[in-house]
């Protein structure tokens, strides 16, 4: 009788301590450019799952909620009702993030978090090209401004976990000054001078662990800044004036030569 009571107590204790377990997955991406209208898709389907950590407990109902937008997904229970799964046939960058799995069982409700990871990518309507054929090193078309003007350089990256962003200029850590400041991950150049011209690089990094292996993922985005003189309009004007002076001089010389030849005749 004592042993029976002990076994019963252990079983009740295991139910009271019931928790969940679930999947961790990552999008397989072969490019780094995406937009809201045309989000990049992974090359492979992804199935997320969750289950009670006690394999003897069955599931009566399951719901998976995407925490980013609170969208509810209807998972499928396996025949034994001990596992709930949901498959993304063509997952996109918008599916990356954290999900809450809610399981109803005869012993109460279980809540567990599952994750879909994504390396950093650019998510923007800006135009970027691959740098020397490297799909995760991009460069913009560049920005040209006049001396004394201001410009903001954004780093439009996304990923899960949220990427950590740092900036460099011409390969060295970006130095802040009276003309170079930051708001969040945006670099602001104010009243620029010629020394502010160069290549500004946004480096976005995140890392996650799958199957015991930690991956550190890097994306680099280069933005060229060219500073031109506020008097740059003078140069083409000077060329035009010099050209007109030369043409006038040639015309006057030709007229003088023709008149001089006519008088001799």
TrEMBL record:
GO biological process, one term: axon guidance
Pfam families tied to this protein: Ig_3 (PF13927), Zwei_Ig_N (PF26428)
UniProt-listed SUPFAM superfamilies: Immunoglobulin
Signal sequence extent: 1-19
Keywords assigned by UniProt, alphabetized: Cell membrane, Disulfide bond, Glycoprotein, Immunoglobulin domain, Membrane, Repeat, Signal, Transmembrane, Transmembrane helix
GO cellular component: axon; plasma membrane
Residue ranges occupied by any Ig-like domain in the UniProt entry: 120-220
Location(s), subcellular: Cell membrane
Gene Ontology molecular-function annotations: cell-cell adhesion mediator activity
Main location: membrane
Transmembrane annotation, as ranges: 233-254
InterPro entries linked: Ig-like_dom, Ig-like_dom_sf, Ig-like_fold, Ig_sub, Ig_sub2, ZIG1/7_N
The keyword Disulfide bond belongs to this UniProt entry's keyword annotation: yes
Official protein name in the record: Protein CBR-ZIG-1
This protein's encoding gene: zig-1
